[in-house]
């Protein structure tokens, strides 16, 4: 949640008290003991850093600690995240490609409305929003991509992606739901022209906007409850018959077996969440592997038209009776059909993305 100055001062006051009692504790350890407004304990180290900055606590000698904190959140090798306690549940959407002229924005927000409606009906007040890649479109991914990119400059795409996340956050906030984000890199979250990691850049800008978001270039593990964990990746490969290509199925099973060989029973991974093929399909079990695949549908009109049999949408995950429950989050069929046939989709997308770029750049202070 974006921090107010009042909340930042509350956090810093608690930080100082704990620091006096435990002067040898690191900021990361102290963050786990700072009270939240819901009565529980524990905030993220990034939230503590923002609070200290807003409260005027950040000094020059803190810069090295901040850099180390950012580096630890954005690892460059194989990266695994254990979210030890998913708040109430998780909402997952991938392959939005918000910067593409063919993105079906209204279909996405229709599915997001359904997510918010279901989360509200379930009584959840704090959710994890999972993005398994391709939030934006990237640059140099394929020949001629600049033609289909509404904005092609990497820093402009980063601002657009960050502002899109803020829009999503405020949609939940208006319903009284707090959301934190994890973002796993997809094959489009890069700039092959410059070699830049656009997913990291989006995350950095989103953090400046006050969002709680963590970024992982390869993979993440989300733990819903003891004994219920999910590997989150973007995915790769192509198949006309399944949301998972044979090569990806083999890779996923081998990777989960590797992880489980080093994890205690309560942290074993049984589920994998991915995107890439723009094909919504939840709860697919692979024979005797005891692994359940969950594939998310993308939001590009071209993909939908060429491969119309592929459902579009996201997913809601939560625990009931000791088991993981999943629900599809599809857009309203009328809205989807309207966008599929909209001759002015390009113009509408240019207008929306241009507005996001302007508002994001203004809020972040660019050009001042």
Overview of this protein structure:
This protein is 39% helix and 18% strand. Strand 2, helix 5 and strand 3 form a beta-alpha-beta unit. The chain is globular.
Strand order of the largest sheet: 1-8-9-10-12-11
> Cα distance, first to last residue?
25 Å
Tell me the overall shape. Answer: globular
Largest β-sheet summary: 6 strands, mixed
Give the strand tally: 14
Strand % is 15-25%
Number of helices: 12
> How helical, in percent, are the residues?
25-40%
**H/E topology pattern:** HHHHEEHEHHEEEHEEEHEEEHEEHH
| Mean pLDDT across every amino acid position | 86
Low-confidence stretches: 58-79
Q: Tell me the structural class.
A: alpha/beta
Quaternary state reads single chain
- Rg calc: 20 Å
Task: Characterize this entry briefly.
This protein has 368 residues and is an alpha/beta fold. It has twelve helices and 14 strands.
């Amino acid at each position: 949640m974006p921090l107010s100055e009042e909340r930042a001062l509350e956090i810093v006051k608690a930080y100082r008290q704990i620091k006096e009692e435990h002067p040898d504790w690191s900021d990361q350890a102290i963050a786990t003991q700072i009270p939240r407004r819901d009565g529980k304990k524990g905030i993220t180290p990034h939230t503590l850093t923002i609070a200290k900055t807003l409260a005027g606590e950040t000094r020059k000698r803190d810069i090295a600690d901040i850099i180390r904190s950012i580096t630890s959140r954005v690892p460059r090798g194989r990266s695994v995240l254990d979210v030890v306690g998913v708040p109430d549940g998780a909402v997952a959407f991938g392959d939005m490609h918000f910067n593409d002229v063919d993105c079906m924005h209204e279909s996405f927000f229709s599915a997001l409305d359904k997510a918010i409606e279901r989360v509200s009906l379930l009584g959840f007040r704090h959710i994890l929003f999972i993005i398994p890649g391709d939030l934006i479109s990237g640059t140099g991914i394929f020949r001629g991509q600049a033609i289909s990119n509404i904005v092609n400059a990497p820093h402009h795409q980063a601002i657009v992606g960050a502002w899109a996340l803020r829009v999503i956050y405020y949609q939940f906030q208006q319903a009284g739901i707090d959301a934190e984000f994890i973002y796993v890199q997809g094959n489009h979250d890069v700039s092959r022209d410059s070699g830049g990691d656009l997913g990291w850049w989006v995350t950095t800008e989103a953090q400046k906007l006050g969002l709680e978001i963590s970024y992982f270039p390869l993979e993440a593990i989300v733990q819903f409850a003891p004994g219920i964990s999910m590997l989150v990746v973007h995915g790769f490969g192509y198949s006309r018959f399944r949301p998972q290509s044979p090569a990806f199925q083999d890779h996923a099973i081998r990777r989960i077996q590797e992880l489980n060989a080093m994890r205690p029973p309560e942290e074993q991974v049984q589920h994998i969440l991915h995107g890439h093929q723009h094909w919504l399909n939840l709860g697919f079990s692979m024979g005797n592997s005891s692994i359940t695949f969950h594939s998310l549908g993308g939001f590009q009109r071209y993909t939908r038209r060429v491969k119309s049999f592929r459902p579009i949408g996201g997913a809601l995950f939560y625990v009931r009776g000791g088991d993981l429950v999943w629900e599809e989050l599809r857009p309203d069929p009328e809205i989807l059909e309207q966008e599929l046939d909209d001759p002015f989709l390009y113009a509408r997308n240019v207008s929306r993305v241009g507005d996001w770029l302007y508002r994001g750049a203004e809020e972040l202070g660019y050009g001042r």
